[in-house]
Amino acid sequence: MQIVSLVPEGAPSSLYRSFIPMQALAINGHRVHVEERNAVGDPGPLLDVDVVHFFRLSHQPARRLARQLRQAGVGIVYDNDFDLTAAPSGHPVAAALRGLGGQRAIADEHAMVRLADVVVAPTEELAERYRAAGAADVQVVENFLPPTFTRPRTLPGRGVTVGWAAMAEHRWDFDRLGIRDALVNLLERHLHLRLLAIGTDLGISSPRYEFLDWQAYDDLPGQLARCDVAIAPLADVSFNQTRSNVKLKEYAALGIPWLASPVGGYAWMGEAEGGRLVADGEWSSALHALVVDEEARRRLSAAGRRWAAKEVVLDHVGELEAVFEHAAAAGRAG
C-alpha cells in the first residue's frame, strides 16, 4: 500500500500514532510518507495513494481535503489519542478549548469521525466515545514501542532514584493527586534517595532533586535508565479514562518497576506487567514499600521486560495493515 500520514505541527503524540507505526509499515514493505503540517493546500499529490491518515487534523480545511480524497477513491483514516470533549476545568487542554473556538474544535472532530472510513483510537474507552459520536467503523490500535526503545548499558547508580517522565500537561495530575508531598516525604525518610523529573518540573527544592527538559525520544531511554522506580500518576477524571498505557510500556521495556494510578489504560495492569497500581492517597506508602524492597524491584523489573518485549510495533504490524487495508478497500468502494 501507499500511505500518507498527515500530522499537526508540534504534536508529541504523533510519535506514537504516526511516526512509529508508519516506520513499521515501511519496514514491512509499504510506501509511506509522514507530512507534519497543519494544512495541505494542494490535494494533487495525495490523489493516487491508497490511504491518507489524519492524526488530530479535523478542521474545515482537513475535512475538505478528506472529501476530495474520498471522491478520488482514497481511503480515509482518522486518529486521535484523547477525548477533546472531556478535558476538565483547569487542565491545559481545556484552556485551549475555551469559548466558541473550543466548541468549533469539538464539532469539527465529530464531523471528521463521521466522514472517515475508519477511526482508530489507542483504547477501547475512547473507541466507544467515537462510536457514540457517530463514527461508523472504529478500531483500537494501541500505542506500541519502536524496536530501538531498549535499555542502554549503564553503570549502577548510588542509592535509589525515583523518576517520572511526562509532558507538561501532566503537572495537573501531579498537583491534583498531591504527589509532591509524597515525594518530599520520601526524600526526608530516605537519605540515599534521589528524584529525577523529565519534561515536567515538580518544583521540589532539594539537592537530591533533578529536573531535565523534555528529551529527544532517542535520548529518553538513556535518561530513564538512571531510575530504579518510575511513577505514572493520573487523576481519575473522564479525560484520563481514555489515556493509553504506553508510558508503562516504556518503563517496563527499560526494566524499571513502576507505580501507576488505576486509571485509563493502566487500570488492568499489575505485577505481571512490571509494577503496581496505587490508589489516591496511598502514594507515600507505595513508594516507600518499593524503595526499601530491592528483591521486589528485581522481580518486577524482570516481569516488565518480559511483557514489554511483546509490545514492540513490529510484532503488531499485522494489526496496522488490517486497518489500512480495510480503509483502502472502503475508499475504492466509494
TrEMBL record:
- Annotated SUPFAM superfamilies: UDP-Glycosyltransferase/glycogen phosphorylase
UniProt keyword Transferase present: yes
Protein name per Swiss-Prot or TrEMBL: Glycosyltransferase involved in cell wall biosynthesis
Give UniProt keywords alphabetically. Answer: Transferase
Name of one Pfam family that matches: Glyco_trans_1_4
Q: Which domain of life is it from?
A: Bacteria
Sorted alphabetically, which Gene3D superfamilies does this protein's record hold?
A: Glycogen Phosphorylase B
GO MF terms held by the record? transferase activity
